[in-house]
Amino acid sequence: MSDPTRPVDDLPPDEPGLAAPDALASALTQMAGLVLSRESVDTALELVTTLAVTVTSGTLGAAVTVVDERGKRSRAASGQAVEQADALQYELDEGPCLTAWRTQQVVRIDDTTTDGRWPRWNEAAGRLGVRSVLSAPLLAAGESIGAMKVYGTRPLAYGPHDEQVMRLFAAQAAILLANAQSLGEARRLSRQLAEALISRDAIAQATGVLLARGAATQQDAFASLAAAARHSHGRVEDVARSLVSSVIADNARPGAP
């Protein structure tokens, strides 16, 4: 049984739980390739968690927890037991993964049957076969956006070397998620801008139609659109588009002036 307090340099190279240098280098190369080739974030996260399971001994599974305005949720969970263990943390609002996210520190449980920090979660996780846990925060620009964890099936499954490995995996997962969030925000802003331009054009065209029909000013024309929107419980831009569409349809009829 390994001593979790022993320094990394004192651990023999064949001790269980340590990843072979070549295997770890290959894993990190694969993840770097994913970023460069811009594969989907979900696919990348699945690979990250799969690799985390591969290079840690006695691991039941791994997953990434994301915390944002939508709440807490798991991504790339490698099995049902992992999903259940995560769900218990969200339900109880306690556990090693949430603590890693909140404190921005690596959290390790050597044995869920003796650890007293999260008694309700430890007891429930133990019934799922979880005896050891290692969780690292996902840090992006100094902000914690979640955590990555591995669940072990035996006590004392993880040591200081595993903590270093988990930090590397968590850093890669954080990059993937941060890039995805930045891309998503850019796309949302682009859509909003496009919608605003379309709405502006539609309202301008509808205002022109009303001016041609006798509205005294642009303000009066817009007030008519706003009143119609209130009456229909819709949006001004929808009323404007409907008006413009009806004018186009009328002009397209045979015999239209």
> What share of residues is helical?
55-70%
**In what range is the share of β-strand residues?**
5-15%
Per DSSP, the total helix count is 8
Main beta-sheet strand count, sense and barrel state? 5 strands, antiparallel
**Strand-pairing-aware structural class:** alpha+beta
- Mean pLDDT, rounded to whole units? 81
What's the structural blueprint in terms of helices and strands?
Layout: H1 21-37, H2 41-55, E1 59-68, E2 71-75, H3 80-92, H4 96-103, E3 107-109, H5 119-127, E4 132-140, E5 143-152, H6 160-212, H7 218-232, H8 236-252
Antiparallel strand pairs: 1-2, 1-5, 3-4, 4-5
What does this structure look like?
It is a single chain. The protein is of the alpha+beta class. About 55% of the residues lie in helices and about 15% in strands. It has helices spanning about 20-35, 40-55, 80-90, 95-105, 120-125, 160-210, 220-230, 235-250, and strands at about 60-70, 70-75, 105-110, 130-140, 145-150. Strands 2-1-5-4-3 form a five-stranded antiparallel β-sheet, with helices on both faces. Strand 4 (about 130-140) and strand 5 (about 145-150) form a beta hairpin.
In short:
Helix content is 57%, strand content 14%. With 257 residues, the protein is an alpha+beta fold.
Give short descriptive properties of this protein.
alpha+beta; elongated
